[in-house]
Amino acid sequence: MKILLVFEKEFPIDGNKLLLFLKQNLKHIKFVLYKKEFIIEDEIITDPSTLKKTYKNFQVERNQFDEILCFSEKQYSNNYFFMGYKNFTIFSFYGWPYLTNLPKSNGVLYFIIDYLALGMDTIDFRHYSTTGCIYDFLEDKSGIDEGMRQARYCNKCLERLTQSLQDKTDIKNFEDLKTLMNRLSEASRWNNDVLAYIKVDSGTIEKRTPKSNDGIHVVIASSGDTASLRKILLDSLERRFRTDNCERHCGFRIMVSGWEDLSSQNGYPQNVINKKIIEKSDFVISVFKHKLGTPTKNLVTGKKRAESGTVEELLQALDNNNSKHPIGMAYFYSTPPEISLDAPEIETIFKEWKRLGRFKDSIKDKMIYKPFANEDELLTMTLKDLENNIIDYIIK
């Protein structure tokens, strides 16, 4: 599920901080922040007039996202918290200080949970008294305070929901909602802002022990146009690490592998690679030349999961908050593609080169990556970097 979050101009929340919180706590539901200025033209929100009129502003986005959730401080004419039109919903925070002393960021998270929980319930059940269950109707709007502090399913609703959920996507999303509920109640019961619970990535790598007793496992990840570069790393890196005394300097031997070491078997190739190689490796060495490669996909929704298999493997290694993930090293060919201006494939080549440039820009604040000019320079560079990284981050 992919959801667009939209905040009306002057809405008092740090949208980027909320997005970071959601990314850190969710495994399945994806959120994107709307970057353009957003204003609801009407002073009072009416159904369906305001909803239909505002919905027209999202002609492109409404086809790209499963849901568009908008947050405003303007009042509904019927004094509701939220109403929807198609896959578009506006949430009203009018009179919030009179309902609770909890911050609006907690309220945004509550309404996200509440809205998605409603979408999972096949009978559209609501409690018409305040119980603290996520399915409270909240006719008395002050019940929002209790709802945030408890952030739970009552026993009957939990039993009903767990028995009725059949779709695999809904079951995964349900797990995400339970995580968000726990975070919300943990913060709210102590009058804390839920966004204070963001994990701060120091940008440094935690020291860790090798995943295997036989040495350091290194996997080579590379795009499809790097065959000769990939071959020299697979064929020579392990031997040169020993003969160039890198092994003696760092105190570990290395074992180098790639997808070529897997047996022919069933399963989505990238999932197999992730499970049987990436999860067991200590380092991922990613090499790019002029293109990223073919995007990976979510097998349930069919949507793009990552820009390519190599990108997906490297991104796992850039998650510094999880010491079980491998450490990432990345190298980019320094020379742009040379092509004739009348070549039939010129547009495709330029498109791939631009994709690669955008990806490099997206990781520039997450890691140090290096350029290389040829095979010899790549091999020499990776040998020295790998030796230094083992010394710095691997515990003997």
Summary of the model, kept short:
With 396 residues, this protein is α/β, with parallel strands linked by helices. Helix content is 39%, strand content 15%. It has two domains: 2-197, Collagenase (Catalytic Domain) (3-Layer(aba) Sandwich); 216-393, Rossmann fold, CATH 3.40.50.
Describe this structure in words.
The chain is α/β, with parallel strands linked by helices and 396 residues long. It has 2 domains: 2-197, Collagenase (Catalytic Domain) (3-Layer(aba) Sandwich); 216-393, Rossmann fold. 39% of the residues lie in helices and 15% in strands. It has 13 helices and 14 strands. It has helices at 15-25, 49-55, 61-64, 104-120, 143-150, 155-164, 168-188, 227-243, 246-250, 269-276, 309-317, 346-363, 375-393, and strands at residues 2-7, 30-33, 44-45, 67-72, 75-76, 82-85, 88-92, 216-222, 254-257, 283-288, 296-297, 304-306, 327-333, 370-372. It has a 5-stranded mixed β-sheet with strand order 2-1-4-7-6. A hairpin with a 2-residue loop joins strand 6 and strand 7. Helix 4 (104-120) packs antiparallel against helix 7 (168-188) and helix 8 packs across helix 13 (375-393). The longest helix is centred in the middle third of the chain and has 21 residues, at 168-188. It is elongated, with a radius of gyration of 25 Å. The two termini are 43 Å apart.
The share of residues in extended strands comes to: 15-25%
Calculate Rg over CA atoms: 25 Å
CATH names the topology of the largest domain as Collagenase (Catalytic Domain)
Assign the structural class, choosing from mainly alpha, mainly beta, alpha/beta, alpha+beta, or little secondary structure.
Answer: alpha/beta
The level-1 CATH class of the largest domain = Alpha Beta
Q: In this structure, how is the largest beta sheet organized? A: 5 strands, mixed
Principal-axes geometry comes out as: elongated
- SSE string, helices as H and strands as E: EHEEHHEEEEHHHHEHHEHEEEHEHEH
In the CATH hierarchy, what is the superfamily of the largest domain? Collagenase (Catalytic Domain)
Please report the number of helical segments: 13
List the uncertain runs.
Answer: none
Helix content: 25-40%
Instruction: Compute the number of strand runs.
Output: 14
Number of structurally distinct domains: 2
The CATH architecture of the largest domain can be named as 3-Layer(aba) Sandwich
Mean of all residue-level pLDDT scores? 92
Please give the alpha-carbon distance between the first and last residues: 43 Å
**Adjacency order of strands in the biggest sheet:** 2-1-4-7-6
